[in-house]
## 1
Amino acid sequence: MITPFGFATPKIIFGKGRIKELPVILSRYGRNIVLVTGKNSFMTSSYGKGLIEKLQSENISYRQVTVPGEPSPDIVDSAVFDLSGFKPDAVVAIGGGSAMDAGKAISAMLLLNESVVDYLEDVGTKEHPGTKVPFIAVPTTSGTGTEATKNAVLSRTGKNGFKKSLRHENILPDIALIDPELTINCSPAITAASGMDCFTQLTESYLSTKSNPMSDAITSEGIKAVRDSLVECFRNGDNIEARSGMSFAALASGIGLANAGLGTVHGIAGAIGGIYEIPHGLLCGTLMAACNDLTVRKLRKTGSNPAALKKYASLGRMFFEDNSKSDDYLTDAFINKLNELTLALRLPGLKTAGVEESSFSTIIAASSSKNNPVKFDDQDLYEVLSMRFV
């Protein structure tokens, strides 16, 4: 019998060239638009200039919010305060995960006269009512999948830092507009980090203890897209077919995590992100092989979750498409593939990225392994950090 489940997605508009439809979409909401972007790459591109020209020609007024890095509660609170007299009809975020998370949080806080910190998981004390200004997400990288999720990740780095979510079912974007052309100019480094974030989300959602047949169907197709497209995007960034594959994979990863949850890689990466200003995708990518290697070893040792080992074999089969090999062989082949990708994409170890061994205890205390096929204790988390401390 199929386990009961719910499922949520935004309205999805996907395809090359579909960014041209954005001004018409925005005009349906009204004449006051908040435009949330990254530091400058989109606004200086032909796509950004074309959008502004079209908004002006349609007499659509806009206010821009710039998000230079991973979004903090202070950025969201400041934007909401500055926009208090503007009365926006919609918020559109165009950029990487940082811009989209910030835009999502801004849209959710514009109708409340409070700090977003009060509503963050494990930080604040209040539950968000789910009210928001209509929100449209337009990704320019293929990574976070936040264009399809019900949460906005905000962080504050430092001694008492955190990386936590503003979460509510209604925070799901109203529209996700995905145009692979917008990702063409991503550097190899961003392509690698965001691509491995996407791959991590797909894998963790597929293996999650909360997965369901619908999420498995979508995440497995996303994983196949990563198989076919990620390394090619890294090596040949102007390959629009590969870029399209990764755009689909990122979207699938967002749908997967929104409906099945994530695992230990993100549990550790989020803890590190609360201490160090290191790109989230880089952390996920560099931890991916080590976390899955230890998960498989613990599953084999305990025999506690044979269904999860079957899924690991399925992951190996997705990459190698060989039904003649044993499940153990395919599982090991999948772990080897993760190690190969770490090298092929030139992902640095934790020490090289800037993590200090003295912070391991703090990282471990803030980490989690919920939804992972097998639970990690503190010693397991220490082993993963040590494996990647190079």
Note: The beta strands are 11-14, 32-37, 61-66, 90-95, 135-139, 151-156, 162-167, 175-178.
## 2
Amino acid sequence: MDTREKIVPVRDLGARLAHGDWLALVGWFDPLTATLAKQVAESTAPGRNLLAVVLDADDTLLPAEARAALMAALRAVDVVTMAKPHEWRAMAASSARIEIVEDSEGERRRSAEFVELVLKRDAS
């Protein structure tokens, strides 16, 4: 499958979520590290689809489109959408069979730690 087919606009999200059980991982995924990719893979469960909601923000390392493409490349991810925080929730609300996992503080911390690591390595 062409991973770009996994990326859908927010307006089409309701139709995709109407079928089956879903886990929505919400975050900036900035950057997508091997550790984060492993966590995504471990969050899957048989019979449950995985939605990655890539949040758009001005202060990210990579643009939302690049982060969405990276998330779509993960085998465990079934659908990816890009949205401003809270923009996508109206579409998800139409599905009672969705569990939402969001860790904004953890996301920001991991991103800051990544930047710090790169700067340390660059200074060496």
Note: The chain has a mean pLDDT of 88.
## 3
Amino acid sequence: MLFRVLAGLIGIFDFMNGLSMVLAPLDWFNTTSGVIATGPFNSHLVTDVGLGYLAGGLALMAFAVQPSWRLAAFGASAFLSFHGLFHLIHVAGGHGRNWGTDVAVAIPALLGIALCWPKREHAA
């Protein structure tokens, strides 16, 4: 049950982040720590990533409500996890000017996929 509650909380965070990216990409770009340092504003890119966050957030929230959605949440969390790993690789490569933001992106993403990792079914 604790895994599902945590997955739901991460899902709400991811969904809200994605919603802000999709509905107000320029505002999201200008107010999110460290984003401006990544290059010029690209509405298409921010919206694309926002849609990934919406999908991941929805799937994690669905798993929180209905455990049978574990596999869907796992799949949708893959984008979030790869995105988080990219941020960690960025820091490890010496581009850690905004390492706090990079780590803050990675931790919930990796925790989310760990929480909905498929369980091995026991044979009857």
Note: The radius of gyration is 15 Å.
